[in-house]
Amino acid sequence: MLFQVASYDGNSPFEPWPSLAGCAFYLDCGPGETIFYYDSPPQDKTSPTGASVSPPPVFVLIHGLGDEADSWRHLIPLLSSRGFRVLALDLPGFGRSVTRGKISVRGHAAAVLKLIEAAIPNDPNSQAKNLIYFAGNSLGALAAEEAVLQKPGLTRGLILLDGSIPGGPSNPGPIALAKLLLSRKWYRAYRGNPDGAWASLYPYYANLDEMPVTDKQFLKKRVKTRVESCSQEQAFFATQRSLIWAYVSAPSRFARGIRRYPGKILLIWGGKDRIMPLSSAETFKALRPDITLKTIGGAGHLPQQEKPEECARLMAEFADLTKEG
To answer: I need a surface site. Which of 97, 100, 159, 314 has the fewest CB within 10 A?
Structure first.
């Protein structure tokens, strides 16, 4: 498949995190389908002329439900500074990515694979495709799992942050489930209510009020943009339906695929996650004796935002341990 790449033109209400604007791109995948992504090169694996000495390891970062690639805003430069190339996309329908197709977990995984096809040379003699690591948070963890189930030999490692199948959130009950699937009133109630939209973020963080001022300013503007976006609303509910269906109908399929997956697996969990309990990680970890679980104290459901330095360290150590294996 032929893809066209263009630099981000700034024409979106979802403004990039300022320091990442220079590495923002659009991938044109055909009529009605555009993937926004960040592509940050390694900062310390180059020759004096700037040419790459060898294909760098690549982290592909996949955000969670209702989020965007900017969820990784602090992790991207931290990983780049450690010699990794970092790709982070907006999943179809979210943020700046546009799609006319069906939005689902499988569709999100397909977008990840398209990005890799476009961004990493498909050369059988190249080492580049042997140095890919998927890292997904929450919904992004499921999309990462789905992608490795479809292409099990593509990646050297899989990192799941506060999300997995098998495992998952506690059963919300039929009334709450019906509200999630059928009613959009609660979502639309945040429009014109910036304080309410901001308050909706609290469960996802161990302590949102302790985030740096620049982060809080960014998130206040971003959550307002999200709830006012009709395309984001559509993507949110379509993905949510697919997500719940996956939790209900596909645990055994995911379990079989994970047991057969030839790469290594790291689980990173926020020690104060109120969305996805640590028991979910334990359920997943039981699938294979070689799965490693690391918890991060003082982090909630989005450890890449609250504790980016620790996340980057754990991910880099994982890649260093597995790149020769």
So the answer is: 100
